[in-house]
Amino acid sequence: MDHTLLVLGLLKLQEMHGYHLGDLIDKRLSYLTDLKKPTLYHLLAKLEAAGDVAQSLSREGNRPERRTYRLTESGAAHFDALLRDNLQDAPAAYFADDIGLLFLSELPAAEARACLDQKRAGMSGRLAAMQAALERHTPGTPAYFTLQHHVLHLRAESAWLDSLLDQLKKRAVREDILRCIAEDESPAPASRRAAR
How far apart are CA 111 and CA 108, in angstroms? Predict the structure, then answer.
């Protein structure tokens, strides 16, 4: 759904050649999405089959024909519906690195800290890049709000990671994840059930 919203939205702003659209997403919007060109072209074909996008062929000089994509009325309505859904949604947050954290105790403590130190260094680099991008945009614009969202998230993530690393310096994490999960599923004690 997010890829569809992005593609329809960009085409609502301007008709584009498929290559230009892919290049824009890859070079300027990669912080928002992992949409790659092969998937983009598959999505464009799907949107065209659904009647949301139309294409025309053009040629400049001796160059090969290029396909220009534009939004149809149906596509504009689809975009509006997806946009409203997206802005109203409060999605659950899933972080890919949380799975690794579940198994943190499976590494020797020093190695676990070294891995997390590398994560912290990478996060610092991403934060610096996002902050620099944010500073190039005018406050109050949609691009500014989007980049600001990433900057604030990365700052919070960095603070959390600093806290975790500080805790790991004091003690190693040694906990059986299966036991933790089982404890989470156990019934609440009688005193907690009564309080509800």
Answer: 5
Q: For residue range 21-33, list pLDDT tens digits in order.
A: 999 999 888 888 8
Pairing label, strands 53-58, 66-71? antiparallel
| Crossing angle between the packed helical segments 37-49 and 18-28, to the nearest 10 degrees | 130
For residue 8, what are the contacts with CB-CB under 8 A and spacing of at least 6?
A: 47, 52, 53, 71, 75, 76, 78, 79, 82
Mean pLDDT of 3-7: 95
- 154 pLDDT band, cuts 50/70/90, is very high
Whole-angstrom distance, CA of residue 135 vs CA of residue 25: 20
User: Which residues is 71 bridged to in the sheet?
Assistant: 53
Q: Could you give all domains of the chain from N- to C-terminal order, each with its CATH number?
A: 2-88 (1.10.10.10), 96-185 (1.20.1280)
Q: What is the per-residue pLDDT for 61?
A: 76
